[in-house]
Specification:
The chain is mainly alpha-helical. The chain has 43 helices and no strands. Helix 5 packs antiparallel against helix 6.
Length: about 850
């Protein structure tokens, strides 16, 4: 430092220590920073700056000193006018710092930002350029954001575009920012060029996550809406390229191309584009988009033309153009169904239903209908067609038939029968339609010749199910064709020819049960009954159960109706053949018919044998019904006593529910016959399958029976049986519950206690049952007396004393858990026993005394 400069420096007493330290260590940054920190608290603002200057003279390459110095200078300039001298001094300080700090991006950034804040545009731009030249390329990414922000801030489009171009050379991935700026300043031509280059660049990845498809849509929208500004690109070629590449946006791209020509004022060209679009789109969605846009375009043209003529007055040319536009719009609306049908046919040209719809749309236009049918039969491939392709040929022929051109219709049918269809039934349907056409015009011989020609077999043997063979070679086994042939022969041919047709159907083994039945009916109508029966037998030989059931049923019925008992042995053989191998679900009707035959024309014992066989052969669900029929017929033929054995067999064979009903009917029968002991035995037998808790009806029936026909011993025996059965059912239930519980070891103490409680309950039930059995074995006291049901206490006298051992049936029934009501709502004891029984019992008592 020179002596003149020393004179301008003012030292304070507190500076002496720092000055001495600097003298000792003039190249120590820490010493200078401590001195500067002390000077910042001084009221003299320039004191710190003087120390900074002194320090930088000693250490001009210190980044820390320069950074802090410049930062302090910028803080001192805050709030001051932009024209203040301090700004220029700070700029000079930045320039001096860059002599040594030109490789420090932070200094350049601060300097450029400081110049931008001052509004020095040119100087700022040049400083940014100097920074980019001075710094290595690896540091440029720190300069460019501020540079781009600076050029975007002012309306300097040319400068900004050039800066962006330079920036893209370093960072091409930031091209979308450039596109945004170009659209902002309305440089759409360059924006379209840049966007097209991005789409063509396979390595470009959008930082905003946009796909190539999205970028393509943006390009199409940009060039279609700005035809006057985008001049460097071939719009038509670009959009058509998109039509080939992006097939899911066909409608949108076509509309964009038409919109481009519309905005360019080329309305005829736009119409051509719309027409081309609706003729080429293949989806209904794209068609709807294009058609709606086309209709709106036409309406806009018409409305615009009408407004212009209203303002200036219409001329002849304007009227012609207006009429032409209206006619074009009307024609477009009329063509919409056909255009939509064309779209669907372009989707699937083998859709038969759509071809039929197209023919209906041309109703009233014969030439168009013929052309459509011709195109349809030439286009549709029967192997892959959707629908029935033969219907196109049939409808084509019918169209000529309605025009009374049978010759042309036959030509169509001739070509139709030569087509290689996928299924034989399709070809058979064509032959049948051809024959029906001949029948409609009363050409019966021609129809028969056609059928005979159709069923003619090929020279070699062909399997009907061999798909490798043509349908023409397999046609001779078509049941549909033979069925119609048989109907025609039966209606218009001879008996011999018709029989030959049916025989041929059976020989080819293509007959159905219905065909056989029709053959049989035809023979019967012609009084060839034995031939009919032979036909039934041939048909039966062709089929198995269950398909043969209808044939057997018809055959047997008609044979019985025809011969009755004249050929009984033959009828029996037929029934045995039918029943041999017959499934159980069909035997019921056969056995009943067989039994009816034996009843009417055979022997009664044979009929009973048939019924017995039926009871064993029918399914379990139908045995009850068969047993009832068996019992009824046996009673009518042999008498009711002959039914006892049948009842016994039915009770053994039927399930419990049906066995109970049969037992009650059996007991009722024995009761009516006066066989009281037999009836009681039946009740006792049935009681073993009747739980008193659920089968209340049975026990009520037995109770009424004993009241009416029994005595004291029988009543006691009934009650003993009832308690025994109830105990048995209780024991079974408890035993099953215990078995379920004991199959698994107790998992905890609670389960162990539950098992123990269950065992205790079982033991108590067993003890109770034993006591009941012992009680019922005790002899009755001889002090028991029976009283007439109609006597009162006064009439009874001394014999009417209360008997503690008297049996109360209601009490016993209520103790078993049953609630009952008698007819008179009162208790029923042995007093209800009829006087006849009471008299017999009383006489027995007197004899004993």
């Amino acid at each position: 430092m020179s002596k003149s400069e020393d004179k301008d420096i003012f030292f304070e007493d507190s500076d002496l220590a720092y000055e001495e330290e600097i003298l000792r260590n003039p190249f120590s940054v820490k010493c200078w920073l401590r001195y500067i920190q002390q000077k910042k608290s001084s009221p003299n603002i320039d004191a710190a700056n003087i120390v900074y200057e002194r320090a930088l003279k000693e250490l001009p390459g210190s980044y820390k000193l320069w950074y802090n110095y410049l930062k302090g200078l910028r803080q001192q300039a805050k709030g001051k006018c932009i024209n203040d001298r301090i700004y220029e001094d700070i700029n000079n300080a930045f320039e001096r710092s860059l002599v040594f700090m030109h490789k420090m991006p932070r200094i350049w950034i601060d300097y450029c930002q400081f110049l931008v804040d001052q509004g020095k545009i040119t100087r700022s731009r040049r400083t940014f350029d100097r920074a980019l030249r001075a710094l290595p390329i690896t540091q440029h990414h720190r300069i460019w954001p501020a540079y781009l922000k600076f050029v975007s801030k002012y309306e300097l489009p040319e400068t900004a575009v050039r800066v962006y171009r330079r920036h893209l050379q370093l960072q091409p991935e930031k091209a979308e920012d450039f596109l945004t700026y170009l659209m902002k300043i309305h440089k759409l031509d360059e924006a379209a060029i840049r966007l097209a280059s991005l789409i063509n660049d396979e390595n470009f990845v959008s930082k905003e996550g946009k796909s190539k498809h999205t970028l393509w849509n943006e390009l199409c929208e940009l060039i279609s809406k700005n035809p006057d500004k985008v001049t460097s690109l071939k719009v038509d070629a670009i959009i058509r390229q998109g039509l080939k590449k992006f097939t899911d946006q066909i409608g949108l791209l076509w509309n964009s191309l038409a919109d481009y020509y519309t905005r360019a004022g080329l309305f005829d060209k736009a119409c051509d584009v719309y027409e081309e679009a609706i003729e080429t789109v293949i989806t209904v969605r794209d068609f709807t988009q294009v058609f709606d846009a086309y209709a709106q375009f036409s309406e806009t043209l018409i409305s615009t033309k009408m407004e212009s003529t209203a303002d200036t007055g219409p001329t002849d040319d304007d009227d012609v153009e207006l009429e032409l536009g209206l006619a074009r719009l009307e024609d477009l609306m009329e063509r919409r169904p056909l255009l939509l049908n064309s779209v669907l046919l372009r989707q699937n040209p083998h859709n038969v239903l759509e071809w039929h719809k197209r023919v209906k749309l041309y109703e009233g236009k014969p030439t168009e209908i013929i052309n459509t049918f011709t195109e349809a039969v030439q286009t549709v491939d029967p192997k892959v067609a959707t629908g029935k392709p033969h219907t196109l040929w049939v409808e084509f022929a019918k169209f000529y038939e309605t025009a009374n051109q049978l010759k042309d219709a036959r030509v169509i049918f001739e070509k139709a029968v030569e087509v290689n269809y996928k299924y034989v039934d399709d070809l058979a349907a064509v032959w049948c339609e051809w024959a029906e056409m001949e029948l409609r015009h009363d050409l019966f011989d021609e129809a028969l010749k056609l059928m005979q020609r159709a069923v003619t077999p090929p020279a070699r043997k062909v399997d009907y199910h061999d798909q490798s063979e043509t349908v023409q070679a397999r046609l001779h086994k078509s049941l549909k064709l033979w069925s119609m042939y048989a109907d025609l022969e039966e209606s218009f041919g001879t008996f011999k020819a018709t029989k030959a047709v049916y025989d041929r159907i059976i020989d080819l083994r293509i007959a159905t049960p219905l065909i056989v039945l029709n053959f049989g009916v035809f023979l019967e109508e012609s009084n060839y009954f034995e031939e009919a029966f032979k036909a039934y037998e041939k048909g039966i030989a062709l089929f198995r159960w269950p398909n043969v059931y209808d044939l057997w049923s018809t055959y047997l019925t008609k044979f019985i109706d025809r011969y009755g008992g004249k050929k009984l042995e033959r009828a029996r053989d037929l029934f045995e053949q039918c029943l041999d191998g017959c499934p159980e679900q069909f035997v019921k009707a056969i056995y009943l018919l067989y039994a009816k035959l034996e009843e009417e024309h055979g022997l009664a014992r044979h009929a009973m044998a048939v019924y017995e066989r039926a009871c064993e052969a029918v399914p379990q669900a139908e045995r009850y019904e068969i047993y009832n029929i068996y019992i009824k017929r046996a009673a009518e033929i042999y008498g009711v006593t002959h039914t006892r054995a049948i009842y016994e067999k039915s009770i053994e064979a039927l399930p419990e529910d049906q066995a109970r009903q049969m037992c009650m009917r059996f007991a009722d029968l024995e009761t009516k016959l006066g066989e009281i002991d037999r009836a009681r035995a039946v009740y006792a037998h049935c009681s073993q399958i009747c739980d008193p808790r659920s089968q209340v009806v049975f026990w009520d029936s037995w109770k009424k029976f004993e009241v009416k026909h029994g005595n004291e011993d029988t009543v006691r025996e009934m009650l003993r049986i009832k308690r025994s059965v109830q105990a048995t059912y209780n024991t079974q239930v408890n035993f099953m519950a215990t078995k379920v519980l004991t199959t698994q070891a107790p998992a905890n103490e609670m389960e162990r206690l539950e098992q123990q409680a269950m065992e205790n309950v079982d033991n108590m039930e067993m003890e109770k049952q034993t006591q009941l059995e012992e009680a019922t074995k005790k002899p009755a006291d001889k002090g028991i007396s029976f009283v007439r049901s109609g006597t009162t206490t006064e009439e009874q006298g001394p014999t009417a004393a209360a008997n503690p051992d008297e049996i109360n049936l209601d009490a016993d029934y209520s103790s078993s858990g049953e609630d009952e009501e008698t007819e008179d709502k009162s208790e029923i004891g042995l007093q209800a026993i009829p006087s006849k029984v009471y008299g017999g019992l009383k006489n027995e008592e007197e004899d004993d005394e």
